[in-house]
Amino acid sequence: MQAEPNNPQAGNAQAAASLVGQEYEVEIGPVAHGGHCIARTAEGQVLFVRHTLPGEKVIARVTEGEEGARFLRADAVTILEPSKDRVEAPCPYAGPGRCGGCDWQHAKPGAQRRLKGEVIAEQLKRLAGLTPEEAGWDGTVMPAEGDKLPPGEVPSWRTRVQYAVDEDGNAGLRRHRSHEVEPIEHCMIAAEGVSELGIEKRDWSGMASIEAIAATGSQDRQVILAPKPGARLPIVELDKPVSVMRVGEKDGGIHRVHGRAFVRERADGRTYRVGSGGFWQVHPKAAETLMLAVMQGLLPRKGDTALDLYCGVGLFAGALADRVGEAGAVLGIESGKRAVEDARHNLAAFDRVRIEQGKVESVLPRTGITEADLIVLDPPRAGAGKQTVRHLAGLGARRIAYVACDPAALARDLGYFREGGYRVRSLRAFDLFPMTHHVECVAILEPAEKGR
Question: Which residues are designated catalytic?
Answer without folding.
Answer: 405
